[in-house]
Amino acid sequence: MELQVAVAKVSKYAVSESGDTLEIVERPHGGLSVVLADGQGSGRAAKDLSNLVAKKAVSLLADGVRDGAVARAVHDFLYHYRHGQVSATLNIVSADLSTRTIVISRNNPSPALVSVNGEVLVLAETATSIGMHRRAKPTIAELPLEATTYVLVYTDGVDTAGRRYGRSIDLIALLQAAASRRADPRTLADEVLARAIELDEGRPNDDMSVVVLAVLPVRTRDEARRLFVQFPLR
Questions:
Q1: Rounded distance between C-alpha atoms, residue 145 and residue 214, angstroms
Q2: Which domains does the chain possess?
């Protein structure tokens, strides 16, 4: 099997700085964790907030703290640091080689979607943002690390795309189509983001970030690990 991760993100229309922050960290006992944070509001203030949240989460994950404990600790940190006056959403998706599981931690009202051998699961258990309330615990889902699995998480700009025009994004259909042809995660992330932007008439109403983690049959014969990044310069 092979683990693949892809990210696609854009900022709110006419705002140069995205309020979403994405970080990837190797786990000390094997595997990867992907952290996606969305700060309250948009622009520089939201970016500073999401960056603070993501960096704190990555630091704890790198120290070997379990995902659920990381989410709780980051909430406590933000709540006390900003006195309960700001909020952020936090998603942590991990491929844990020590337990051979995929762990999906959500402090995000937007659901997460999982496709396992073509069957789509919607993880929509109520989950609150971090930072505003004294107690905010994550919802946790744990799945076997097996091919063929896709995990799709995103910020609320994707979830609400098109609503001001009376339309909505069909993420289940997009995931099902990609899983049926065993698309690579980059293709799926690009398709989801493109559809969300299209629904907002080419002018994203909010910051949009899409993360796809997939476990697929091995496509390369060597043991090399690779990372590809494409970042437009302004």
A1: 10
A2: 2-216 (3.60.40.10)
